[in-house]
Amino acid sequence: MPRAIWMLGLVSLFMDVSSEMIHALLPVFLLKTLGASALVIGLIEGAAEATAAIVKVFSGAISDRAGRRKPLTLLGYGMAALTKPLFALASGVGLVFFARIADRIGKGIRGAPRDALVADLAPASLRGAAFGLRQSMDTVGALLGPLLAILLMALLSDNIRQVFWFAVLPAMLAVAVLMFGVREPERPRAAVAPRQPLRGWRALQRPFWVVVAVGVIFQLARFSEAFLILRTQQLGLELAFTPLALVTMNLTYSLSAYPAGHWADRVPRQRLLALGLLLLIAADAALAYAPDWRWALAGAAIWGLHLGCTQGVLAALVVDTAPDTLRGTAFGVFNLLSGAALLLASVLAGALWQAAGPAWTFAAGAGLAVLALLSLARTARPVTT
Fold first, then answer.
1. N or C: which terminal CB in the chain sees fewer CB atoms within 10 Å?
2. Rounded to whole angstroms, how far apart are CA atoms 199 and 313?
3. Mean pLDDT of all residues in the chain?
4. Its pTM surpasses 0.70
């Protein structure tokens, strides 16, 4: 595996430590400290992810046209690092909303160029493994972040704002590693996209659009992980330990992402996607009918396995079905449409939570996952490699 992919994984690890220190406590901070409702939390989370998805369209296309991935990747990580202090300073929902949007704009700027950079660096025979490795290291960071949040909450007497300040340091480390540790390979002129890169989506063929359709259906069945945190807290988990929901999810996610990506290089990728949907159905059922927070943590663990079986595989499928010169554009389009689906799913989840309760929210998610599984069965040939 090329060294630069390990470095990109380390960048993702540090940034996710920072982000998840904040995100593990942010839903409770919004609910308990700032007085936001579950619907407002769903709107914030959905709008933030949808914003990132929109920005990815432009950043991916620009990286194709420029023939360079690293500058936009560095800009995106740098912007995300600069937003971290805003969460600690927030005294109302408005600044949190602004900070989340700005943070996700940074994610949107870096996402498609970084994924395209992984594809540029990885040998074709290790493509699934490369995406799985980066995702695993990303998720190790997402595991360490909530653990650090729990530790700091204990040391700082449940002072959430001070924990947010500590999250600034690993974000700065991520930017430093990317700046000095990742060297972008030279791309031949023939591998650079033609002029008018924002119209490059027109050259994407039917197999790619089938993958997009599958990704959209997946996102409709899976809303923001903020609701996992709210569910464990609603079932009686103490405030200082609410990050355990993300710790549990990210532990199983990090352990499964690389093996799943490695497996996807050897079997039809559709099998991994189907397994992921079955795991999502099981996770939703556990969360819907959990009698206490321990069962909710079990549901979060299964949720993480579902992510491990699907996220890297979907990224590999995008690369499989897009021209080399339009990889950034392809990731941008894929993330735009799947992000719009996540916005819709998160808003509906928040509204359903507020109107009927958490059990109905997760039961509805299980039903959508069943529909996604049936839809996947109808698209077997185009998404198999």
1. N
2. 26
3. 81
4. no
